[in-house]
Amino acid sequence: MLRTMVTQLIEHERIQTTLPKAKELRKVADRVVTYAKKGDKNNLILASGVVRTERELHKLFTTLAARYAGRAGGYTRVVHLGRRQHDAAPMAYIECAARERAAAGGAGGARARAALHGRPPTRAPRRRGPQPMLLARAGGRGAARHGAAAAGSPARIAPARPRSIVFAMSGGERPFGAGKPSKKGFIVLVQGRLGAGQMTKFQELFAPLAAHVATHEAGCSAYELSLDAADPDRFIIYERYESKDYLESVHWQSEPFKAFQASLGPAGVEFVEKSVSTFVEVDVGF
Q1: CA of residue 201 relative to chain centroid, distance
Q2: Contact 276, 144 (CB under 8 A)
Q3: What is the pLDDT of residue 228?
Q4: pLDDT tens per residue across span 219-252
Q5: Which is nearest to 139 in space by CA: 279, 245, 281?
Q6: How far apart (Å, rounded) are the C-alpha atoms in residues 224 and 77?
Q7: What is the DSSP letter of 91?
Q8: What are phi and psi of 261, to 5 degrees?
């Protein structure tokens, strides 16, 4: 994390973060500037182990090294901004010293603090002693019957989504979550793996079913297929219904769903692994 922040600091010469991170970042940033001022091969290797991009590394050893050639230290400074509104975390700017723009503690700093607390920008107040700090206010029976077409995407569901999931497929006429009812939904999550090389055929069979659900089943607000980038035979299907009764009485009884299940075997699509889980949404999240 600090490597990324150092690279961003060299690029923009001022970034905003929490005060504890700014203090730690300052130590690393001052150290890489010292490497650049020495300018030899060994220090270039040390700096390249911190700075992530060649462009910022070049700027460090040219622009910044020349700027701070006459300084013995203090290449960066931390400007306090106050506390963040939603969680009261102390915030700060960390910036390169002697940068061309005006210091953040003047009118620019006042505008930044106003934006942080959601207030319109005002003139910088006179300092008359300590200023007050603004603080923030404070699996069901039906799952066993559910076939491979328990649909959906892992995007907005309580169970964590695998980070390698990158491909999503739906009917295309209703975006994910469109028409999502305000009441708690009934979630079905199908995870599994197909035989080698069968995923393309599986997608071809799944697409008409997803299109039917998107256009004809108003009680289903999500019906998506996602694939694992690291394992192309592994998939997750996520669906969200207004109720379990809707799943059983409408979706399972639809002709496209029955046709989809019946077509898997003749098409040579077999499940090496498959599990079906059901969930009921709670009031946490969005």
Answers
A1: 31
A2: yes
A3: 83
A4: 898 898 988 888 889 998 989 899 999 999 999 9
A5: 279
A6: 49
A7: E
A8: -65, -40
Residues sharing a CB contact under 8 Å with residue 66, sequence separation 6 or more, in sequence order: none
Amino acid at 173: E
Supply angle C-alpha 230, 234, 239, rounded to 5: 120
User: Are the CB atoms for 4 and 52 separated by under 8 Å?
Assistant: yes
Cα 105 from Cα 97, distance rounded (Å): 13
CB atoms within 10 A of CB 212: 19
Structure tokens at 85: 């509104």
User: Which two three-digit tokens encode residue 118?
Assistant: 């959601």
Contact indicator for 107, 117 with CB cutoff of 8 Å:
no
Q: How far apart are CA 60 and CA 9, in angstroms?
A: 10
The strand pair at 234-241 and 271-280 is best described as unpaired
Q: State pTM to two decimals.
A: 0.40
- Most distant CA atoms of the chain, gap in Å: 82
- Spell out, as residue ranges, where the chain has pLDDT lower than 70: 100-183, 283-286
Residues 6+ apart with CB under 8 A from 259: 209
Look up tokens 């569901």; give the residue.
157
Terminal Cα-to-Cα distance of the chain (whole angstroms): 27
d(CA 2, CA 4): 5
One-letter amino acid for residue 211 of the chain: A
Residue 163 per-residue DSSP state: T
Distance of CA 30 to the CA centre of its chain: 30
Q: What is the pLDDT of residue 36?
A: 93
**CB distance 257 to 190 below 8 Å:** no
Answer for the pair 202, 233: CB distance below 8 angstroms, yes or no: no
What radius of gyration do the chain's Cα atoms show? 28
